[in-house]
Description:
2% strand, Four Helix Bundle (Hemerythrin (Met), subunit A), globular, two-stranded antiparallel sheet, mainly alpha, 2 domains
Amino acid sequence: LFHILTIGASFPENQIYGFHKGYVISPHEVAESIRNFIANFFGCEVCRRHFLDMYDNCGHGHCKRLANQATFLKNDFSNNSNEEGRELAIWFWEVHNDVNIRLMKENATSHHRNVTTEEVNAAKFPTTNMCHTCWLDKNMEQWDSNEVYVFLKQWYWPKREVAVKTLSQKSLRKINLDRQKNTTEGIPLGICGILLVIPFVVFTILLFRDGNHKSSKILPFLRRTKRRKS
């Protein structure tokens, strides 16, 4: 979720949308929001303590790297350049990888052994198979920030059209059964209701057609019927 947030905040169109809504959000403010969310709502106490200690001590240089002003106000996006906006996503990616490595080392220590280089590299995201252009060396200690950002954007904010799901035969049979429940002998309940109402409507029209109840020929018939029953 935090990665999605940092990627979304890097898009100039999202920054401009917020600007028109009265919110001018900088990369630093987004990082502060993540920090405050973790401080108040993160369930893992150990994780929360580690993150706050890292952040409050300018971990991974965020206090110098992240702009205090909305990047769309400072940059010219005609050449698709938004390095300051991307820095937030790269910074949080570095933080997350550092957490993965720390957890891998702690797990090895709990088993009274040293962590291997292969294990450290396996803890890093993405793997070389997932993005071979992201890493600049075999030990995965240096990276290309532009390539990493492109990968993160495709991974966490993919451009996908809404998939149209086809109904299986089982689903179609269920729909047909539901339709049959709403019918009576093949006639929809709505039509049955109309057929029942029509005689009443016709009777009412005939009853009040002349505008005078006493002059209607139907009323004497009703009176005679009532006398016979009595």
